[in-house]
Amino acid sequence: MRFSTFLLSIILFTNCLVFALSVNRTLCLLFTHLSVASDYPSAWLAEEVPNVHVRFSFCCRLWTGKYTMNLLRFVSLRHIFFITIIWLLALILFYRLHESVSIDYGKELPKMLNKIIKLEKEISEQNKEAGRLLERLDNDKFAQKWFIFSNSTDYTAHPDDRDAPLSIGDKIPVLVMACNRPAAIRVHLNQLLLLRPSPELFPIIVSQDCDHQPTSQVIDTYRDSITVIKQPNQTEPILSKKLKKFAGYYKIARHYRWALNQIFFNMKYKTVIVTEDDLQIAVDFFEFFLATYKLLIADSSLYCISAWNDNGQEVMIEDRPDLLYRTDFFPELSPKWPNGFWDDWIRDPPQRRGRSCIRPEISRTAMSLYGKSGVSKGLFYEKHLKSIKLNTKFVRFTAMNLTYLLKENYEKLFSSQVNQAPVVSLNAIQAGLWTGKSVRILYRNAKEFVDIAKIIGLMDDMKAGVPRTAFRGVVPVYYYKTRVFISPVGEWKNYDDN
């Protein structure tokens, strides 16, 4: 750009110089002609009339013509010189300014770009933060107005329902089980407090075992936002030599029993959400429990709502965060308690009594890295737990009609879906012949189910004869972009706990 500008300036200057020289040449020729023409009458007149006056006039005209021509030549040259000087000064000034601006612009450009990028990031972050705040405000407004009518059969949220006041029985406390992981409890509490839509509707109660001082110090920093209780019995459980290696599981069972007694009998709550310090929670964690709580109260065939899908690895779930199921496999807790291994005990038929739980297609909880350092020493973490997908899309469950999950509705709906699905082979599914459709794979006994589960990648263990996520013996899974129902042969009657 500088070269082209310089070249253009030289051309303009040259044109002006040529024009000035041409004008000068023309004027000189013109006045030369005039001077010569004026001399002839004077000469003729001098010969005919030898008069001093006439000769004097001739000399004056002759001198005047020559002087005028010389003067014009001088003036033209002076103008050319003046124009040349002006052009040179203008060019020098122009290039000085242009160079100065170019240098400053070159130096400032990276700074300006960095400022623009930084400003864009700040605006983006502010927009995200504003979105989060608006969502929290919206959730808070919605949650604070929520009320549950026990006799209602319509589970869609109505304005009249949400305007009713809350009582102690309508609050849903969150019981956080903690022991000796200070970093884990800090991260978990931060998540709960960030996503909680209403402190009044979802009070947080942290129950600590182990009497671990670093963990206690972290928990104490949240006392303005939570309630803290501590399990008082820190004695070692009395166990046989064979069971001593399982002492940690007995301590956990003791802690759960004590904490749940505090919730239900001392604090008089009707229900509770139980979490542990090594869990991550989804963005709609509270929305999920708020909506399904009414089902739990209304349907006596339900005894828990679980945020967890045992087979919730990303490769085995459909991208349907709104999808919920009933399951006969119990993944959570109960008011009655054993001395140890409560999670296995609670799945036994005497405790389950034919009841079901509700669970999501995509888990609303996931195991954090802190889960590797638990009592199980990370036994299932690397193999299974770390691959469970946590939902990232907010679903407005409280605005949905969830009556399809009631027992009388769900059994008909689920049986119809399963029975209408054609029976196919695993090879056909893996070949992509049934993509986007629903199919069945049949098994005749526990061994065949385990074989199928291992090929697909499901958890293949059973508790009291119930496969994980099963409902009436059927395990739904999303495999090769196909909805697959792993179903028992014939009509299902009951589980064989042997």
Name the features.
glycosyltransferase, three-stranded mixed β-sheet, Spore Coat Polysaccharide Biosynthesis Protein SpsA, Chain A, 2,3-Dihydroxybiphenyl 1,2-Dioxygenase, domain 1, 14 strands, 498 residues, alpha/beta, 3 domains, coiled coil, four-stranded parallel β-sheet
In spatial order, strands of the major sheet run: 3-2-1-4
Q: How would you sum up the major sheet?
A: 4 strands, parallel
Give the overall shape. Answer: extended
Radius of gyration, in angstroms, nearest whole number: 47 Å
- Range of strand content: 5-15%
The average pLDDT is 77
Structural class: alpha/beta
Give the helix tally: 12
Per CATH, the architecture of the largest domain is Alpha-Beta Complex
